[in-house]
Specification:
By secondary structure, the chain is mainly alpha-helical. The chain has helices spanning about 1-25, 30-35, 40-65. The protein has one domain.
Length: about 70
Protein backbone atom coordinates (compact mmCIF):
# COMPACT_ATOMS: atom_id res chain seq x y z
CA UNK A 1 0.00 0.00 0.00
CA UNK A 2 2.90 2.40 0.47
CA UNK A 3 3.34 2.37 -3.31
CA UNK A 4 -0.25 3.52 -3.74
CA UNK A 5 0.25 6.20 -1.07
CA UNK A 6 3.33 7.52 -2.86
CA UNK A 7 1.65 7.44 -6.28
CA UNK A 8 -1.35 9.32 -4.90
CA UNK A 9 0.93 11.89 -3.22
CA UNK A 10 2.83 12.47 -6.47
CA UNK A 11 -0.42 12.96 -8.37
CA UNK A 12 -1.63 15.42 -5.74
CA UNK A 13 1.60 17.42 -6.01
CA UNK A 14 1.22 17.53 -9.80
CA UNK A 15 -2.39 18.63 -9.42
CA UNK A 16 -1.50 21.22 -6.81
CA UNK A 17 1.26 22.70 -8.94
CA UNK A 18 -1.08 22.84 -11.93
CA UNK A 19 -3.78 24.60 -9.88
CA UNK A 20 -1.15 27.01 -8.57
CA UNK A 21 -0.19 27.90 -12.13
CA UNK A 22 -3.86 28.32 -13.04
CA UNK A 23 -4.52 30.53 -10.03
CA UNK A 24 -1.42 32.69 -10.28
CA UNK A 25 -0.90 32.97 -14.01
CA UNK A 26 -4.02 31.60 -15.70
CA UNK A 27 -1.84 28.89 -17.27
CA UNK A 28 -3.03 25.27 -17.34
CA UNK A 29 0.12 23.18 -17.84
CA UNK A 30 -1.76 19.91 -18.36
CA UNK A 31 -3.91 21.45 -21.09
CA UNK A 32 -0.84 23.07 -22.65
CA UNK A 33 1.01 19.75 -22.77
CA UNK A 34 -1.83 17.45 -23.83
CA UNK A 35 -4.43 19.78 -25.35
CA UNK A 36 -7.51 21.27 -23.73
CA UNK A 37 -10.24 18.69 -23.15
CA UNK A 38 -8.16 15.95 -24.78
CA UNK A 39 -8.44 12.37 -23.62
CA UNK A 40 -4.99 12.55 -22.01
CA UNK A 41 -5.85 15.75 -20.11
CA UNK A 42 -9.11 14.27 -18.88
CA UNK A 43 -7.28 11.12 -17.77
CA UNK A 44 -4.73 13.14 -15.81
CA UNK A 45 -7.42 15.27 -14.18
CA UNK A 46 -9.36 12.10 -13.32
CA UNK A 47 -6.28 10.44 -11.80
CA UNK A 48 -5.57 13.52 -9.69
CA UNK A 49 -9.17 13.56 -8.49
CA UNK A 50 -9.09 9.84 -7.67
CA UNK A 51 -5.81 10.34 -5.81
CA UNK A 52 -7.45 13.06 -3.70
CA UNK A 53 -10.41 10.81 -2.89
CA UNK A 54 -8.02 7.96 -2.01
CA UNK A 55 -5.92 10.18 0.28
CA UNK A 56 -8.98 11.65 1.99
CA UNK A 57 -10.62 8.26 2.52
CA UNK A 58 -7.51 6.49 3.77
CA UNK A 59 -5.78 9.26 5.72
CA UNK A 60 -6.04 7.57 9.15
CA UNK A 61 -4.72 4.29 7.75
CA UNK A 62 -1.89 6.09 5.94
CA UNK A 63 -0.92 7.84 9.18
CA UNK A 64 -0.83 4.50 11.00
CA UNK A 65 1.23 2.82 8.26
CA UNK A 66 3.74 5.67 8.23
CA UNK A 67 3.73 5.97 12.05
CA UNK A 68 2.60 9.60 11.93
CA UNK A 69 0.39 11.05 14.63
CA UNK A 70 -2.46 13.30 13.49
CA UNK A 71 -1.68 16.99 14.00
CA UNK A 72 -4.69 17.43 16.30
CA UNK A 73 -3.45 14.87 18.82
CA UNK A 74 0.01 16.37 19.33
Amino acid sequence: MKTMDIAAAILLVIGGLNWGLVGLFGFDLVAALFGPASGASRAIYSLVGLAAIYQAATLPAIQRRWNVQPALSR
